[in-house]
Amino acid sequence: MSIFRLLQATCSKPPSRLYSSSNFVPSCGLSCGRFYHSYEHDRPPPFSPTEDRILSAALSHVPTHGFTTTALTQGARAAGYLDISTNLFPAGPFSIVNYHLVTQRLALAKDVTPARHDPIKIPTNINKLILRRLHANKAIIHRWQEALALLATPTRLPTSLRELALLSDEILFLAGSTDVTSVWYTNRAGLAVIYASAELFMTTDTSENFVETEEFLARRLEEGEKIKSFVGGVGTWAGIQAGGFVDGMRSKGVRI
Amino acid sequence: MSFPTPWRTSARLTRRLLAIKQPYRCLSCSLRLAREEARQDAKTTHFGFESVPAAEKQSRVGAVFSSVASSYDTMNDLMSLYTHRLWKDHFVRSLNPGIHTSLFPSPNQPTSQTILDIAGGTGDIAFRLLSHATTVNNDHSSRVIVSDINPAMLAEGKKRSLQTEWASSERLSWVEANAEDLHMIDSNSIDLYTVAFGIRNFTDKMAALREAYRVLKPGGVFACLEFSKVHNPILNGAYKRWSFGAIPLIGQLVAGDRESYQYLVESIERFPSQREFAGMVEEAGFLLPGGMEEEGGWEDLMGGIAAVHRGIKPTEG
Lengths: 256, 317
Ligand SMILES: C[S@@+](CC[C@H](N)C(=O)[O-])C[C@H]1O[C@@H](n2cnc3c(N)ncnc32)[C@H](O)[C@@H]1O
What we know:
The complex is a heterodimer. Chain A is mainly α.
């Protein structure tokens, strides 16, 4: 089953201001629309101070140790904790992946001022926002395939997709496209497919300052604009795109 | 999930036993006792579903375990539907005891752990902790202190240790102690505190949790494996019928001590739910793991027949 279909199955409603959120609601998931949007800062922080200290330290060890238990243990040590304290994270190295995803999404929400609604500018805004988010992966991009492998494990997939959906919502909200437009990717599922494929592409991109990823993203968005949003056609197109893309990457030896 | 064959075999055995003997206590009696318990005197505590004075409980718990020490594995097999060894393996593996020094040494970092296995009677957990530290983490110096209130259980554990490579190792030691009073253990001296199938027997669980907090180093981990509450109502009904009905009778068969087994089964029923117990661990001062997990603070095994609770002692505050 393609990522798109999974997303489509879980997000029946179009995105709106209500969906965009600063952190996820664990018991709620994709299928429920009671998220608060970025303007509301009354949400509790997603990580406790201790989790924050250990996981951010662990993340700084990812370039050398990868998304591994070793990085987590080094994080605990750096934060003044014991090796055994990593029991605070039963999900193990996946906790570091999740920490990176959540904190980078929150950083986007914090640093970018939401655009005023202007349908003409939406594609450009989306392009800029995706690139901005992708650039936050630079330091760990050579390890990101390990993260993708962890994100794709069956037990983690619901969490992974929920986080991807939240990122899509955030980008749509910040781009000012909270109303329905005729461009198919201005919805949670469509944008998620484009983002995920660009992110994956970037893991094999060796070009200067990731210009090839930039071009790849531009092509995906351009293609998307040509397709008017009509039910069914969109799903089929995106399903084929995502499926074919994953197969293609697999044949290149990417572990997904 | 489906029950393994032992369920059917033992159900048949139960029917046979029931045909031979009149059961001397029935489920409905136990339920009646449970209801009466709501009106009980504040100075009493639970001995299964019977209310007994707190001071007496300790000695009665002692009596239970002396009489079942050697046939205790059989009971655990039956109560856990033959999976307690797997649970114990999982419990120890997920805790990952031992320090992997050779892989990434850092200066000023302790190179061994002191682990305290409470209610460790049979040594079952202790041997696994030592094996894991040694074979998985290549740690040849971390130590385990096995502690139990009952000298007969400790004797059983020592006897069993003779079958292991830890028989005369200085990495294994034995201490007779009530988990509610660990005065012989220094404060802030333990890296990992484990208790498997023990805490439900403690008279004052909060006192035991506070002692765990005291003896643990900052950053140290409290870990508890215990029978718990089954969430699925159908599975719960089946498991209750199984445990209340069949086990005491089989207990009588294997140990000739029906009362003790009845106590063991009923003490499971008495134990707080996963959520309540997680609340108690937090109240004792521990950080609970897994804010991002569905069930933060604990992990259910086989739909909640057992659960693992963990808490981390914070380094500040
Ligand atoms: C069911 S056995 C568990 C043995 C072992 N941990 C295992 O899992 O194989 C329960 C143990 O708890 C011990 N126990 C009961 N009350 C205790 C207390 N207050 N303090 C310490 N140990 C206690 C009993 O003596 C008995 O050995």
